[in-house]
């Protein structure tokens, strides 16, 4: 049996330790609040959320496959919860068992026998659930999983396995045959099935008529060791086979636990955003290397979770644009919009719901962020040195097709120098096939891209009375920073 709910070609790779991820990406986009909501207090769900968000899918077919599974999970959440609960129970029972036991053949065999015996009720429950859920699911991932369970865990399987386990649980009754080589050593040691029914000779304590027997003296330690070695040789193949079988069952439940945990975090995020009045949709990914990027009613999920209600939504049509420049007055929603866009891209490439009514984008190999930081408390570097060092590392790591999100980069120096540096860096990234979305107050940077067909300019909307609406819309760059608004807010009009 194979799970493969998240990837049709392989089991989802997992880690026993929380991934470090990209600290800058997690901090800049405010993903910690998102991860906490997805986990809903469950440490394992948090591990899954943090891992999957930092390794987005870059293959279009795999991503579409995963989104179909996500749609199935949203339509039938009871399926996800039931399968996840079964996986948790099976893993917990196995974890208690695998804490004990040694490395000797008998210990390995006993552990495998007891492990498989304990998990048989769970496998029966799994088959019952598969028969119940198969008629309602539609995605290729769920269908393949439940079909394999129904095919592999039929009644003949349970009858045969339970029969073998019953015999092996009391292996002193097992019979073995062996041959002697020219040196008198045992070869071809093979265990055989014995009859469950005890014959009359066994009841009377008489040896079988056609077999020879021997008895080891009470103090014959060498004989006892030799007999133990023969028994271990006979049981070695059985122990190895059962150990592999137990490991296969354990790996199956590990994969089922991981994949259903991924879907549970999707359900948690969807419920949290819905409760706050935020539109969600299943995104439509496009081939990597393209310039598709548009959205309707896009919101920042982190801000929605912080406020407890739906923040202002914005639309975006950046299809065909290699660089998007967002300029305008402070506190107009530019950084919030940038976070919303970056988060939506990551959520799409994880196969999750996106906080928008429509979201379509080309797949990117990686998302990079370069956000303004505070002063260096160690006083070892100036602020501009720190910005340049981070941008240098970003450029080294970037590859064609990547997405770079810049928020007020190079504002630590004067406007002319900062604008010239940013323009040169962004032009170099564009030549390298990297897409850029930048929030900036640097007029020289904006002027450097005026007239470029591949550039899209956005700005915060303002009413005729000068009020901010926090909606980001297409607008030709305006050189004013509306400093009088800030003066009035502080000192009064």
List strands and helices in order, with pairings.
Blueprint: H1 23-28, H2 31-39, H3 43-53, H4 60-75, H5 77-98, H6 105-133, H7 140-152, H8 155-169, E1 175-180, E2 186-192, H9 200-204, H10 221-275, E3 284-286, E4 293-298, H11 301-307, E5 314-317, E6 323-326, H12 334-350, E7 358-362, E8 367-371, H13 383-397, E9 403-407, H14 415-431, E10 435-439, H15 443-449, E11 455-462, E12 468-474, H16 483-491
Parallel strand pairs: 3-7, 6-10, 6-11, 8-9, 9-10
Antiparallel strand pairs: 1-2, 4-5, 4-7, 11-12
Helix pairs in contact: 2-3, 2-10, 2-11, 3-10, 4-5, 4-10, 5-6, 5-10, 6-7, 6-8, 6-10, 14-15
pLDDT averaged over residues: 85
Number of helices: 16
Described by strand count, sense and barrel closure, the largest sheet is: 6 strands, mixed
Number of domains: 2
What would the principal axes of the Cα set say about the shape?
elongated
N/C terminus separation: 72 Å
- Assign the structural class, choosing from mainly alpha, mainly beta, alpha/beta, alpha+beta, or little secondary structure: alpha/beta
Strand order of the largest sheet: 8-9-10-6-11-12
Radius of gyration: 32 Å
Q: List low-confidence stretches.
A: none
Q: Give the percentage of residues in beta strands.
A: 5-15%
Strand runs, count:
12
Helix content: 40-55%
Which H/E pattern describes the elements? HHHHHHHHEEHHEEHEEHEEHEHEHEEH
């Amino acid at each position: 049996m194979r799970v493969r709910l998240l990837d049709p070609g392989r089991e989802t790779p997992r880690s026993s330790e929380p991934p470090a991820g990209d600290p800058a990406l997690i901090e800049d986009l405010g993903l910690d609040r998102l991860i906490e909501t997805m986990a809903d207090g469950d440490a394992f769900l948090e591990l899954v959320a943090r891992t999957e968000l930092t390794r987005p899918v870059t293959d279009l077919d795999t991503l579409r496959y995963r989104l179909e599974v996500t749609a199935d999970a949203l339509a039938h959440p009871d399926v996800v919860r039931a399968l996840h609960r079964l996986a948790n129970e099976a893993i917990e029972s196995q974890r208690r068992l695998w804490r004990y036991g040694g490395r000797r053949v008998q210990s390995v065999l006993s552990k495998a026998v007891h492990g498989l015996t304990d998990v048989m009720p769970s496998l029966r429950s799994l088959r019952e659930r598969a028969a119940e859920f198969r008629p309602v699911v539609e995605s290729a991932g769920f269908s393949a999983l439940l079909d394999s369970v129904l095919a592999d865990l039929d009644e003949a399987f349970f009858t045969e396995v339970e029969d073998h386990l019953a015999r092996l649980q009391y292996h002193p009754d097992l019979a073995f045959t062996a041959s002697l080589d020219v040196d008198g050593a045992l070869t071809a040691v093979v265990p055989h099935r014995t009859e469950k029914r005890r014959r009359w000779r066994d009841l009377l304590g008489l040896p079988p008529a056609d077999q020879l027997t021997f008895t080891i003296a009470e103090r014959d330690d060498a004989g006892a060791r030799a007999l133990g070695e023969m028994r271990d040789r006979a049981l070695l193949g059985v122990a190895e086979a059962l150990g592999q079988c137990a490991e296969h069952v354990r790996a199956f439940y590990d994969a089922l636990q991981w994949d259903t945990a991924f879907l549970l975090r999707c359900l948690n995020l969807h419920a949290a955003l819905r409760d706050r009045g935020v539109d969600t949709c299943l995104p439509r990914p496009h081939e990597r290397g393209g310039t598709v990027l548009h959205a309707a009613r896009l919101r920042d999920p982190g801000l929605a979770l912080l406020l407890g209600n739906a923040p202002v939504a914005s639309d975006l049509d950046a299809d065909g644009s290699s660089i998007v420049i967002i300029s305008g007055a402070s506190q107009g929603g530019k950084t919030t919009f940038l976070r919303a866009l970056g988060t939506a891209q990551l959520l799409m490439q994880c196969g999750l719901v996106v906080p928008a009514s429509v979201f379509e984008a080309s797949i990117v190999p990686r998302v990079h962020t370069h956000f303004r930081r505070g002063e260096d408390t160690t006083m070892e570097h100036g602020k501009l040195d720190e910005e340049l060092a981070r941008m240098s590392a970003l450029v080294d790591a970037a590859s064609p097709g990547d997405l770079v999100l810049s928020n007020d980069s190079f504002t630590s120096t004067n406007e002319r120098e900062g604008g010239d540096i940013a323009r040169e860096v962004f032009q170099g990234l564009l030549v390298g096939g990297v897409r850029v979305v930048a929030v900036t107050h640097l007029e020289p940077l904006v002027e450097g891209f005026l007239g470029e067909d591949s550039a899209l300019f956005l700005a915060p909307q303002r009413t005729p009375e000068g009020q901010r609406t926090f909606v980001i819309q297409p607008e030709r760059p305006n050189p004013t920073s509306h400093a009088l608004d800030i003066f009035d807010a502080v000192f009064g009009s």
